[in-house]
C-alpha cells in the first residue's frame, strides 16, 4: 500500500513538474508577446505622428485648392463679362450687316447708275463678315465655359471629399 502511495505521490510530483514547465513556457511566451506589443505601440505612435503630419499637409492642400478655386471663379467671371461684351458687339455688328444689306438692295434697284457703289458695298460686307468670323474665332465657346465649370465641379468635389475625411479623422480621434 505504501508503494502504491509512493507511486501516486511520484506521479503527482511528475505532473506538477510538467505543469510548472508548461507554466514557465507560457510565461516566456507572454514576455515575448509583451515585447511585441511594446514594439507595436511604438510603431503605432510613429504612425500617429505621420498621420498628424499628413493631416497638416492635407489642410495646406485644401487651403491651396480653395485659393485655386477662387482664382478660377474670378477667371470665369472675367470670361463671362468678356463674352457678354462680345455678344453685344456681335449684335451691333449684325445690325450693321442688316443695314448694309438694305443699302445693297437699294443700290440694286438703281443698278446702272450705282454699279461702282454696289461693288464697294459688297467688298465692305465681305470685310465685315470676315471680322465677324475673326471675332467668333476669338470668343470663348460654350464648350470652353462648360469645361471650366466641369473643372470647378471636380475641384469642389475634391475639397468636399477632403473636408469629409478631415472630419472623419477628427471624430475618430
Walk me through this protein's architecture.
With 173 residues, the chain is mainly α. The chain contains three helices and no strands. Helix 1 (2-109) runs antiparallel to helix 3. The radius of gyration is 43 Å and the shape is rod-shaped. The two termini are 70 Å apart.
User: Structural class of the secondary elements?
Assistant: mainly alpha
Instruction: Write down how many β-strands occur, each being a DSSP E stretch of 2 or more residues.
Output: 0
- Overall mean pLDDT stands at 87
The biggest beta sheet, please?
Answer: none
Top keywords for this entry?
about 170 residues, mainly alpha, 3 helices, about 95% helix, rod-shaped
Brief digest:
The protein is mainly α and 173 residues long. It contains 3 helices and no strands.
What is the topological layout?
Layout: H1 2-109, H2 111-138, H3 142-172
Amino acid at each position: 500500500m505504501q508503494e502504491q502511495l509512493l507511486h501516486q505521490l511520484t506521479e503527482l510530483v511528475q505532473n506538477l513538474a510538467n505543469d510548472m514547465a508548461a507554466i514557465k513556457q507560457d510565461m516566456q511566451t507572454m514576455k515575448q508577446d509583451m515585447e511585441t506589443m511594446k514594439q507595436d505601440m511604438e510603431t503605432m505612435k510613429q504612425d500617429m505622428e505621420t498621420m498628424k503630419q499628413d493631416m497638416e499637409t492635407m489642410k495646406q492642400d485644401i487651403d491651396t485648392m480653395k485659393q485655386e478655386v477662387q482664382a478660377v471663379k474670378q477667371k470665369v467671371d472675367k470670361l463671362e463679362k468678356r463674352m457678354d461684351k462680345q455678344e453685344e458687339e456681335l449684335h451691333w455688328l449684325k445690325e450693321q450687316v442688316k443695314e448694309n444689306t438694305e443699302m445693297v438692295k437699294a443700290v440694286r434697284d438703281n443698278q446702272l447708275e450705282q454699279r461702282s457703289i454696289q461693288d464697294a458695298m459688297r467688298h465692305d460686307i465681305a470685310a465685315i463678315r470676315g471680322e465677324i468670323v475673326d471675332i467668333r474665332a476669338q470668343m470663348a465657346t460654350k464648350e470652353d465655359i462648360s469645361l471650366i465649370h466641369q473643372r470647378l465641379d471636380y475641384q469642389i468635389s475634391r475639397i468636399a471629399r477632403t473636408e469629409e475625411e478631415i472630419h472623419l479623422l477628427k471624430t475618430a480621434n
